[in-house]
Amino acid sequence: MSSNLIVVLTALDVEYDAVREKLSDPQIHRHPQGTRFEVGRLVGGRCRIALGLVGKGNQAAAVLAERAITEFDPAALLFVGVAGALHFHLALGDVVVATHVYAFHGGTSEDDGFKSRPRVWEVSHGADQIARHVARDRTWMDEIRTGRRAPEVHFGPITAGEVVLNSAVSAHARWIRQHYNDALAIEMEGAGVAQAAHLNRALPVVVVRGVSDRADGTKETTDREQWQARAVANAAAFTTALAESLAAEARDHDRSTANGTRGNLEMSEMIHNVAKDNAQVGVQAGRVYGGIRVYGGQDAQTDPAEAIAALETRLQQAHAAEQLDENTYSAALEELATAREVLRSNGPQDMGTVTLALKKVRGLVGDVAALAAEVTSIIALVQGLT
Predict the structure, then answer these.
(1) Contact 35/52 with Cβ under 8 angstroms?
(2) CATH 3.40.50.1580 is the classification of domain 6-256
(3) 190/202 Cα distance (integer angstroms)
(4) N or C, which end of the chain has less CB nearby within 10 Å?
(5) pLDDT tens-place values along the chain, 386 residues long
(6) Where would I find the Nucleoside phosphorylase domain in this sequence (predicted)?
(7) Are 185 and 211 in contact (CB under 8 A)?
(8) Distance between CA atoms of residues 134 and 208, nearest Å
C-alpha cells in the first residue's frame, strides 16, 4: 500500500458516516479475518484514506488499529469521534486534539485505597505541529455549515477508559479530577489506538474528538439536541484536513528521499559497485539508510528474473505513492514484461534485449533516483552474466 495513505478509525457508525461522506468513490477492502475497510480519495484532495470501524472500547480499538497498520502500512493513523468535556471552557461542538492520552483505569487496590498507575502516550512532535498548523489555518471550517458558532480547537490531554462517564459527582468523576485534572475530555478508545501505534515503529497517531456532551449527567439532553451529530461533523472536518496535510508531508518526504536529500545533505540514495569473476567489492559508509542489496558472488542473488520481480514490486509502491504517473508506470511494466519473456524462453536468451528493456525502464523512472539506481544495478547484473 501507499506510504502516503492515512488510516482513519472510528468507534460509532455516525462517526464513520461523517468521514465516509468526504470520500470519493470509496472501495471495499476486505481483511482476511473479515474486517472491512473502505479506501477512497478525499473529495477535492489528493489524500487516500482507509476508513475503518472498530466499535467501542480500548481493546477492540487496539486490535483493529494493529490490523489496519499491518494491512496498509500508513503514513499516519487518525482516530476521530466524540467525547465528553471535563472543563467548562470547552463548548459543545468544539474539537479536542489529544497531546497526551491517559489510560486512567490502571492502578493497584490497597488497604488505604486505590493507587493510580497511569499509562500515557504522547503525540509525536511532527504530527502535533501539523495539527496545530491546520487549526491556525482555519480553512478546515469551510465545510461546516454557516449560521452556527464556529468551533474552537483545543490541544491538551484526554483520558480513555472503559466506561461512559455521565456524572460530575460519581466515584469515577472524582477519581479523574483528582488524578487527571489537566485532561480536557474523556472517551473510550484513544488508549488502545495509541498503544497499537506505539508498538509499530512509533507510527504518528492523532486522536481527534468533537465535544458532544459535558460528562455531567446531561448526555441524554445533548443527544436529543443533536449535539453528537454536530460534534462528529466538526471533528470529521478537522480530521480530513489534517489527513490531507499529513499525506502532503509524507509525499514531500518521499520526494526528498528519492532525490537523495537528507536535511541539508545531498547524497545518492544508492551506492552500487559491480564485481565480475573473482573480484571483490567493499563499501565504506559513515551511515547507511535503507537496505543493502548485493548482486553477484556465490552467496548473492544472481537470478535477474528475481531482481526484475523485486523491481516490479517497488515500481508498484512508487506508483501508489504518486512518484510515478499512470503512463510512466504502465510503460515501465511493459518493458519489464518484455525482459521477463526473454528470460523465460527455453532457447538462447538474448540478454541484449533484456538490457535494452531495462535501459528504457531506467529512462522512464529517472526522476526517482532510488528506482533508477536499482535498475542500473540490475543492468550490471545482466551484463555480468553475458
Answers:
(1) yes
(2) yes
(3) 15
(4) C
(5) 445 799 999 999 999 999 999 999 999 999 999 999 999 999 988 899 999 999 999 999 999 999 999 999 999 999 999 999 999 999 999 999 999 999 987 778 888 877 778 789 999 999 999 999 999 999 999 877 656 788 999 999 999 988 889 898 898 888 888 889 999 999 999 999 999 989 987 789 999 999 999 999 999 999 999 999 999 999 999 999 999 999 999 877 766 655 554 444 333 344 445 554 445 555 555 444 444 444 444 334 568 888 898 999 999 988 888 888 888 888 899 999 988 888 887 665 677 888 888 988 888 888 788 888 888 888 888 877 65
(6) 6-242
(7) yes
(8) 13
Other C-beta atoms within 10 Å of 92: how many?
20
Please tell me the predicted confidence (pLDDT) of residue 2.
Answer: 46
Q: Which amino acid is present at 313?
A: T
Q: Three cell numbers at 48? A: 487516500
**For the residues of 26-39, what is the DSSP string, one character each?**
EEEEE-TTS-EEEE
Helix (H) or strand (E) holding 61: helix 58-72
Going by C-alpha positions, the residue among 340, 331, 339, 334 that lies closest to residue 364 is: 331
Whole-number Å distance between alpha carbons of 205 and 245: 14
- Structural Rg of the chain based on CA atoms: 26
- What is the β-pairing status of strands 185-187 and 153-160? parallel
- In whole angstroms, what is the distance from residue 278 CA to residue 261 CA? 35
Grid cell digits, residue 51: 476508513
- Domain segments of the chain as ranges: 6-256, 267-384
CA 219/CA 167 separation, integer angstroms: 9
User: Do residues 213 and 92 touch, judged by C-beta distance below 8 A?
Assistant: yes
Q: Quickly count: other Cβ atoms within 10 Å of residue 231's Cβ.
A: 29
Is there a contact between 78 and 205 (Cβ–Cβ < 8 Å)?
A: yes
Hey, what amino acid is at 126?
G
Q: In this structure, what C-alpha cell is assigned to residue 145? A: 455549515
Contacts (Cβ under 8 Å, ≥6 apart) of 171 = none
As separate numbers, helices (DSSP H) first and strands (DSSP E) second, the chain gives 11, 14
Whether the CB-CB separation of 192 and 65 falls below 8 Å is answered with: yes
pTM for the structure as a whole: 0.67
Angle at 203 between CA 197 and CA 209, to 5 degrees: 65
d(CA 374, CA 240): 36
